[in-house]
Design brief:
344 residues, alpha/beta, Rossmann fold, 32% helix
């Protein structure tokens, strides 16, 4: 971990105090300035922010320099999207008719036939429906995480760390997992509880879970927000049973989207994304936390949201997803998102 020094700001309820972080939080190598004076275009947090890149070619980590102080980072989340979910938005009415119900039927068939989550023999009709999903890479991407990376045979107690209002909890619970969550956002936790989920509020260490209490831990777009990622992963390892699985998803600094959009890439997301990993940097971090059998790949799951977030159309976003899927055939690091699996 590199050295840091606090930067003083005038007292204000809006200004976010920051600290200098000259060195890579993964390998300790110095950083070079990559982008300057980025602002929060999505939720209006105060300040302008610089991004550094690790000079070590194999690492390539990105991070904010300076970055928000841990005591002030809450100011960046005042208008965050999890609050919108917590505000009681109306749920969609249930699909009706054969056409309306077809997408969910295809999804269920794909999960059963292709991902192995089937408690009974899969029918020929379900296998044919699963084929539709398998032929469409964008539909596969929307369904694969985290089901693809969780073992069917060892279902048990699963923790969704950073669960928000509970969307993923519902998905894994439908697969037969005993799912529960933790989130630091009280509004999101309240929404998850209203939806019937077992969710705790606060940081992971504050929960004081017993050793080896979980069969799986999922962290979807959490690790990039954390001031002390190595310490968090060590705590995750402590609460996992031996031989059980950690699954992580996070933005990919080497994605095709970042290479094309540069400073406009929406997943830089200052000041909330304190660091953005490359596949090799994330593998190194997870290994340093004591995990074994660490494997990372890149996926296209979030590519469809990339261009709409900066003013593009949904059609353009979907085309970007297809484009990244094609690029993955030639460059394994092209995907917008890193998916990592490791064992305790």
């Amino acid at each position: 971990m590199g050295s840091s020094a606090a930067i003083a700001h005038p007292l204000s309820d809006d200004l976010i105090a920051a600290e200098v972080c000259p060195d890579c939080v993964i390998c300790g190598a110095p950083g070079v300035a990559l982008y300057h004076d980025l602002t929060d275009r999505f939720y209006g947090a105060s300040g302008s922010w610089n991004v550094s890149r690790c000079i070590a070619a194999r690492c390539g980590m990105l991070w904010l320099n300076p970055r928000p102080l841990e005591s002030d980072i809450w100011k960046a989340y005042r208008k965050y999207y999890t609050h919108e979910a917590a505000g009681g938005a109306k749920s969609r009415p249930p699909a009706r008719g054969i056409i309306g119900k077809m997408p969910q039927a295809i999804k269920r068939a794909y999960i059963a036939s292709r991902l192995g989550y089937a408690d009974r023999k899969v029918s020929l009709r379900e296998q044919m429906l699963a084929g539709f999903a398998y032929l469409d890479p964008t539909r596969r991407a929307d369904t694969d995480f985290p089901s693809k990376y969780l073992p069917f045979g060892n279902r048990g107690r699963l923790l969704d760390l950073g669960c928000g209002s509970g969307d993923m909890l519902g998905a894994v619970r439908s697969l037969g997992w005993e799912a529960e969550g933790v989130d630091i956002d009280p509004a999101a936790v309240a929404a998850a509880r209203r939806n019937g989920f077992n969710v705790r509020c606060g940081s992971l260490p504050e929960q004081r879970f017993p050793d080896a209490g979980f069969d799986a831990v999922v962290m979807s777009h959490v690790i990039e927000h954390v001031h002390h990622p190595l310490e968090l992963l060590a705590e995750v390892r402590r609460i996992l049973k031996r031989g059980c699985r950690l699954v992580i998803a996070t933005p990919n600094a080497r994605s095709l989207g970042h290479r094309m959009l540069r400073a406009r890439w929406p997943f830089l997301d200052p000041p909330r994304h304190l660091q953005v990993f490359t596949p090799r940097a994330l593998e190194a971090l997870v290994l340093a936390a004591g995990f074994t059998d660490v494997r990372a790949c890149t996926e296209i799951r979030t590519a469809a949201a990339m261009l709409p977030r900066i003013g593009g159309s949904r059609i353009a976003g979907r085309l970007a997803e297809y484009g990244e899927n094609f690029a993955l055939h030639f460059d394994h690091d092209a995907g917008e998102e890193i998916a990592l699996v490791a064992s305790r």
